[in-house]
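Components:
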Amino acid sequence: MTNKRILLDHGSGGAASRELIESIFLPRLDNPALAKFEDSAILDLSSTRLAFTTDGYVVDPIFFPGGDIGKLAVHGTINDLAMQGAVPLGLSLALILEEGFPMADLVRLADSIAQASRESGVPVVTGDTKVVPRGKADRIFITTSGVGAVPEGIVLGSNMARPGDAVLLSGFMADHGITIMAARSGLAIQSSIESDTAPLHGLVAALLQEAGSAIRCFRDPTRGGVATVLAEIAEKSGVRIELDEKALPVRPGVATACELLGLDPLYLANEGKCIVIADPGSADSLLSRMRGTPAGRDGVRIGRVVRDDAHPGTGKVILKTAIGGRRIIGPLSGEPLPRIC
Amino acid sequence: MLPDNLSDPFRDGELSARLAEGIRAAVQRPLRLMEVCGTHTMAIFRHGIRTLLPDAVELISGPGCPVCVTSAGDIDQIIELASMPGVILTTFGDLLRVPGSSGRNLAEARAGGAEVEIVYSPADALNRARNTDRTVVFPAIGFETTIPVIAATVLEARTEGINNFFLLVSHKVVPPALEVLLADPELAVDGLLCPGHVSAIIGARAYEPLAERYGMPCVVAGFEPLDILSAILLLVRQIRAGKGEVENAYGRVVGEDGNLRARQMIERVFEPCDARWRGLGEIPGSGLALRPEFREHDARAFFGLVPRSVPEPKGCRCGEILTGKVNPRQCPLFNTRCTPTHPVGPCMVSSEGTCAAYSRYGVR
Amino acid sequence: MCLAIPMRVKEIHGQADDPASFPVAMVDENGVRKSVRLDIVDRWPEVGDYLIVHAGFAIHTLDAEEAETNLKLMREMADHVAGQSF
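Structure:
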């Protein structure tokens, strides 16, 4: 690939497009399905239930501490499948590139996507590339789809939480959200904080194996943070969730950055974390198993599900604060922004 | 031995519980305390302080959120500037969702093509101006905590000759607003929790004339749980003893005379003027304007903006809510025309203002 | 209006008596490093002091002793309460 920048020709579907894909993507994403280079990939399924997901990635900046938009796209799609208990089988990858996008950056992203795919064991089996004129897109947008097979007997749902259930979180909150916020707002903060982007299918498989029937649901708290996901679960299940502020895992540096900017870690995005709602009897063994996985080694119990007596049918999340007070945690209302007030 | 993190010791759960117990023991009758400052409102909510207080102690939110009391007219001007071709509007994040007179806000203006960038510090806004030929406008909002920061930035712009940096000045100062509130004979407030960081600049003594004239207990408070609870305890004790004095519970940050250097910086760059407060109307001498020698950085002057008087929305009862006379449910706009997603007055604009809290949580 | 947090001073660049140098302090808290302007600080800080940081500027310098004094007062208030309860 001799061009230093993406040209409109690269998106035309002709020789230049082919050259782009053959020189940058095929060597890196090499797998039998992709090698066939057909319009869609055929995946041989032996189980009967298919999980199917799609996502768009528009993160800015595209390269950030701990990852990039490509890595995020692979992990995010795998995680959407994993949250339903599915074994991810393959991903599609569609890129919309802005004319003028540096080829070196595209190569860097392709390397990252390939590495994330390889390390997760989930192939990118089909893809597409389009180029739009300069100014019509912000450098690169990525859309993915993912398919996975849900093993028999696995039934999970955000509406299945019951009073008494344990609420587990697989690790530190807000790493990704604060990384992006710090990189974006011109905050001139130097820190060792980085995105937590990671695939979760290994962790999910381990927990399902440990005590699958005890698990009500998995949810990954991406945009909107832990608070928004828990508010949704409480709403759908018609229960209340009580959280213990002292149990919420936040890295000290992340806590400081949040204080500085006036942000609440409960509402910031995570890209490699998982909430698990499970029968209390299995909570200890699940936590133990979780901590034995790379993605879940900092897993903790953060709260419990309780009956919603006062207002039947209305879900609520209540936080017991570090000083013993109580505060209601609602879902995210708008994009979290740094504040001075 | 204090840790690197100075806030932790002031979040001690055990001490908090004992202070809360002290408040319970000291309260003899229902009383109302005004937490003047928006940051106090947020801190009280964040730590769940209300749930530790006896029912007899009611905390009401005052007008101390400079963003929330920015008038619709000023927001209109900010949106007007942001929408001008070639202008980059650099702003604190807080301002993004405050509505103008038509209900439109900066976020919507941005969606409509205005270039709006969020900054953490006015120094970042000035830096933006350094790195572009385009015109950079910064809405200068904030009370005495923020005003010296902006004054220092204007001085820097002047020193370096950065002539594409402009302020839309909407600063307000706190004491005149407190004066207006306390002068109201129907004010239903027994004590004031005074803003900790504004006080770091103006000094605890600044509240003495008010305390004396109106016999109002005033306690300067910080923002950690122990700060707030100890201040409330001091207020409750004063009320019980029939006192109306100024006490400083935030001694590690606030001195009797405040920060002289910061005040000198304010005086160097700004001079007093009248200002319009959303929900409270016009308060004489409560605003600031750039002094003539710095007017080259005044956005209104540069762009020839015509001041427009935008009346308070009909039916808005924020003024009475802020003075504790009325509760949100008694306002005709509450949860009908005025909601958390489409707020009208400051009590709803502030995410933890009296009306926003009532609306979202049902209870205060 | 008032969001400001205490951060510990690790380095100082610039002179107190030379405002044109726009002096700054490098503060560090749990691995978060930031430069903080000293244009409006009330007392010139020393390394090890804390700065109250608002919008990138220091509005106040305090040392560990002042913080300890404030904390002590609150402890005394709490102790006094405990005394009354029993």
